Amino acid sequence: MCYGMVGDSLEYGDWKLGKRQEGLATSMLSFGVKLATAICAPVVLLLEAVGYVPNAQQTPSTQIGINFMVNILPAILSLVSCIPLIWYKLSDKRVSEIRADLEEGKHTWDK
């Protein structure tokens, strides 16, 4: 979903500011991936917290903890990540209008 939204945001930025900033958008998306990777790296600590023992039969409480980590926690974080979408106002119709304006050479300050 992020990659589709980046394209729309680039069009909006060009329309609003008169500048296409693909490099900035790409670097911020790359930074987000790197940040997520860095945050997920300490998963070993979470495994230790739920009592995971490598190469052994896991206890029921450990299985519940692992289930929470791989199913419930990502679902919660996915829902939380949708909160900023409340302020994302670029609908398909609006993006089409912006692209039409850009093809005609119009920007926000022209209106």
What does this structure look like?
The chain is mainly alpha-helical. 68% of the residues lie in helices and 0% in strands. The chain contains five helices and no strands. It has helices at residues 2-17, 22-40, 43-49, 60-81, 92-103. 2% of the residues are buried. The model has no long low-confidence stretch (mean pLDDT 89).
Could you list some keywords that capture this structure?
single chain, mainly alpha, 0% strand, elongated
Sum this structure up briefly.
The protein has 111 residues and is mainly alpha-helical. Helix content is 68%, strand content 0%. Helix 1 (2-17) runs antiparallel to helix 2 and helix 1 crosses helix 5 (92-103).
